[in-house]
Amino acid sequence: MKTNILILNCGSSSLKFAVIDPTSEQEFISGLAERLGSPEAVIVSKFQGEKTTINIADEAHDGAIAGVLDVLKEKGLFDTIAAVGHRVVHGGEAFTASTLVAEDVKKAISDCIPLAPLHNPANLLGIEAAEKHFPGLPQAAVFDTAFHQTMPAQAYLYPVPYEYYTDLGLRKYGFHGTSYRFITASACEMLGRKTEETALLIAHLGNGASAAAVLNGEGVDTTMGLTPLDGLMMGTRSGSVDPNIFTFLRDQKGYSLDEVASVLNKKSGLLGLSQISNDCRAVEEAAAEGSKQALLTLDVYCYVLAKQLAGLAIGLGRIDALVFTGGIGENSELIRRKVVELMGIFGFKLDNDLNLKQRFGAEGVITAESGPVAMVVSTNEELMIARDTASLIK
């Protein structure tokens, strides 16, 4: 019986996949095709606890999806697939919710390529390859930007000439929306509160990181902007910096616009400031061993995060809970401790024992009962995509 959803998340040189039953929420298989287009291209899959690696040398997205199809056939999952759900990074203002893929939807995704030149082309390649290899199956597009389309104009407009918005679509869009939807529902359930009566600050912290203000289930502000470079300090991204960095580095270093953009996207953040790694775990380990540069890097990371969370609170009017999620948010007790302490002006009081306990899949409150709630909630974007896709094909 066809009840499962195949999830595809295509990057420029990678493809993540999973097969999920949206009703039972069971994940049957997951995997990653990486280094696509190179001689080292492989598909690594995990099925019933066992990992398997398949070489697909020089194959790009089309070949990778063909390889995934073969893996699904081998594991007896191919005939269980009812639809394919795609993560699409940018839907612009055209999409406020997930949608079934049609020609006009693909055109709208293509029209957003100037807003997401690295992601949307790969997302389109994934959709078209899936249509080829899974003919007749419904395809759904789930947009990172859709959740944030409820932001008011005062939150998404930039103070630049207004025609840049009307003519070019220059505005804040926000990302990680699929995660924010999942976390909002999960956090409200854990708190025993109605979604439509809850004010949340959510910090989605991974190699890419953002934060959002969610009021009564709707996004009212977020840190990422026109692109995912804006906002928080991340693994290799600088986050918000003085825009005149571009002219400064041009004048001082002779860099082109593309070279400055590359520095801010790929050589900054945790990696650039620590000179150690883009991986927060490695920076924390170096800090524990006494590295002053690593300690400084973590201080900057947490200060920037706490400062931007405090700013997002303006859009809420109150804070019912501060939620940490993503690989760093769910597992780094150090980052959470530093941020909660910095947020003490709002009355947050950390419970050190609870903070140490909520890691590696454990979820729950990390603050003392006498103050506002801060908590850890595990995200699951793939399950959210599966739920949306299943809902669309009913």
From TrEMBL:
The active site is at D144. It is found in: Cytoplasm. GO terms for biological process: acetate metabolic process; acetyl-CoA biosynthetic process. GO terms for molecular function: acetate kinase activity; ATP binding; magnesium ion binding. GO terms for cellular component: cytosol. Mg(2+) binds at N9, E381. Its main location: cytoplasm. ATP binds at K16, H204, L205, G206, N207, G208, D279, C280, R281, G327, I328, G329, E330, N331. Homodimer. NCBIfam families: ackA. Catalyzes the formation of acetyl phosphate from acetate and ATP. Can also catalyze the reverse reaction. This is Acetate kinase. It comes from Pelagibaculum spongiae.
